[in-house]
Each structure stands twice: as structure tokens, then as C-alpha cells.
Design a protein that fits this description.
Blueprint: E1 13-16, E2 20-26, H1 30-35, E3 50-56, E4 62-72, E5 75-81, H2 85-93, E6 102-105, E7 110-116, H3 117-124, E8 134-137, E9 140-148, E10 151-159, H4 172-181, H5 218-226, E11 232-239, E12 248-251, E13 254-268, E14 271-279, E15 288-290, E16 299-301
Antiparallel strand pairs: 1-7, 2-5, 2-6, 3-4, 4-5, 7-10, 8-9, 9-10, 11-14, 11-16, 12-13, 12-15, 13-14
């Protein structure tokens, strides 16, 4: 494996992210309700924390990945891929029943900005937060994301009418690449119901709490964790061709059966970086290719966290 080069020279800036949606859960029962639906411990979430979470089917397959934080004592914000907002709200609302919890899509009221690089850190100053932390900035929320390639990353959620951050425009391809190389997966429309959380390392990046109570798919997720039945994991790769979420991977020794699937991908002048879920056995020998066994070859890179102890999972 090789390690992606750090990008210490990134000046950075801000980029509006219309592919993110902002959902809200408000009401005295909002925490208890979300606790029963998500893979994360929502009730234990303090006001200065943001946590990654998943929403699964009864079979443990991910319908969405979400960043969750408190927007009030009895309210939560949830960030997910914009294309998933409507079906997610429809499905989750079916289970509210008599709970005092109101769910809505606030994307028309709130916009999401991605901040990265030295310029963003300088602009934020003392307001910058560490990964997993949140801060209230005037009437906006600043969420600290895991760094990537040595670059600090934040999400800024602010009223739609608020002025854009006073930062240089951030190149979209750069933001996408940093999102991929951070090793944190994001479920999109192309990968709905494709993965159990552990297949894409969701528990490795803090997206699953195994001590909390039940939620849809909890038994499947727990069984995958404790019985050692998982044979697939997400890895970081590079390739010279463009790639997109949902594309299948094939192994050189078995051209008839898919060996994995692209989770997220980003391309720029340096090539393509992608996160892909793959059969662990496919990493032992031969080569992995995009779309077909004769397609572009994938070069495995180091993730920013270790999964070395999962080889026998």
C-alpha cells in the first residue's frame, strides 16, 4: 500500500454544499425518538458535540449516514445527502406515532458550507473547533469534521439569508477529495441499502454505539461485530480513471463476480481517489479493477485509521 501525499500547501476557503440537506427533529421526545432509530447514542450527545450516525433497515442495511448535533435542549439537527432527505423523512415519520417529535427538512432555511485549509482556519480564529466538536457562531452552527491530508475541515450551517463566509472560493474537486481521503463514508442515492455499517467502517469512525438500546437492524449490526462474520471492508484507493458511487469492482482472478463497490469518489488533476467496500479475500493477491476485470486498475492507499486487526473478521 502507498500513502496519499499530504497537501500542506492548500490555502483553502469555503464552498457551498447543495448536496447536503439539513433535517430537524424538535420536541420534548425528539431525543428519545432518535435514540430508537439511529445507530448513535443521541441522548448522550452534549451541546458541544457532533456525531456521525447511521439509519438502517431491519436487515441492518444503511439507508443514510448522518451527522447529528443538538440545536436546542429539545431539538437536533441532522445532515444527510440531499437526495436522501425526502425518502428519509417519509420513512422516519412513519415511526413517530404518539411521540412529541416534529420532523422537517430545513434545507430551504439553512445552507451548508464546507470550510477547509489554512485560510479557513485563519478566518475562524478562536472559533475553530476540533473534530467532533460544535460551536454556535452567531446564529450558525460550526461542526468540526475529521481532518484529511493534514487539513482541518468544518461544516458551517447558517441561515440561507446570511452572508457567505468571507473566504476565497474553495475548489469543489478539492473538497470532494478531502472528503474521500478522510476515510469517512457518506451514503448517497447510489448506495442506499448496499452496506451494513461495518462494511464501510462506520463503527471505526465513531458512527455506531454498541452500548445503546435497540434501533432498526441492531441485531444484524451487533452480530456482525461480535461473531466475526464480516468478510468485506472499506478501503481507500487511487485510479487514473473517473469513478462514481455505486460502480462495481472486479478482481483479476474472478471476472464474473463483483468483488466490491465504490462508496464515494472524487477526481481532480492528480487523478481519482475513492472509498470502496471490497471482499477482504480480494486483497490477498491479483488486482482490483473498476467496472470490469479489464477496467482501470485500483491502487490501494492507506486509510487515516487502522483496520489491521480486522483481517480475520
Amino acid at each position: 500500500m502507498s500513502t496519499p501525499a499530504a497537501s500542506s500547501s492548500i490555502n483553502g476557503g469555503a464552498l457551498r454544499l447543495p448536496d447536503w440537506a439539513v433535517l430537524r427533529a424538535r420536541g420534548p421526545d425528539s431525543g428519545t425518538f432518535l435514540q430508537s432509530q439511529l445507530t448513535q447514542d443521541v441522548l448522550g450527545l452534549s451541546k458541544d458535540r457532533v456525531r456521525l450516525s447511521g439509519y438502517c433497515t431491519a436487515k441492518g442495511r444503511l439507508l443514510a449516514s448522518l451527522w447529528v448535533w443538538r440545536i436546542a435542549d429539545d431539538g437536533f439537527g441532522l445532515l444527510c445527502s440531499a437526495a436522501l432527505a425526502a425518502p428519509l423523512l417519509k420513512r422516519v415519520s412513519m415511526y413517530v406515532l404518539r411521540a412529541k417529535c416534529k420532523l422537517d427538512d430545513a434545507s430551504a432555511e439553512l445552507t451548508v458550507w464546507g470550510l477547509a485549509g489554512a485560510a479557513a482556519v485563519q478566518w475562524l480564529g478562536d472559533a475553530a473547533v476540533a473534530p467532533g466538536r460544535t460551536a454556535l457562531r452567531d446564529v450558525a452552527w460550526l461542526l468540526g469534521l475529521p481532518s484529511a491530508e493534514g487539513q482541518a475541515r468544518h461544516l458551517l450551517v447558517q441561515p440561507a439569508q446570511a452572508a457567505a463566509p468571507a473566504l476565497p472560493p474553495l475548489d469543489q474537486s478539492l473538497w470532494r477529495r478531502l472528503e474521500v481521503t478522510s476515510g469517512v463514508p457518506r451514503i448517497t442515492a447510489a448506495t442506499v441499502e448496499r452496506f451494513v455499517p461495518q462494511m464501510i467502517n462506520l463503527e471505526r469512525v465513531g458512527g455506531v454505539d454498541f452500548q445503546k438500546g435497540c434501533y432498526p437492524g441492531q441485531e444484524v449490526v451487533a452480530r456482525s461485530q461480535y461473531r466475526g462474520t464480516l468478510k468485506r471492508r472499506m478501503h481507500l484507493f487511487a485510479t487514473d480513471a473517473a469513478a462514481q458511487a455505486g460502480q462495481e469492482l472486479f478482481h483479476s482472478d474472478d471476472p464474473t463476480q463483483p468483488a466490491g463497490m465504490v462508496v464515494n469518489a472524487a477526481s481532480d488533476a492528480s487523478g481519482t481517489r475513492l472509498l470502496a467496500e471490497v471482499k477482504l479475500a480480494a486483497l490477498d493477491s491479483g488486482s482490483l479493477h473498476l467496472v470490469t476485470a479489464e477496467g482501470p486498475v485500483l491502487r490501494r492507499l492507506d486509510l487515516p485509521y487502522s483496520i489491521a486487526d480486522l483481517a480475520d473478521a
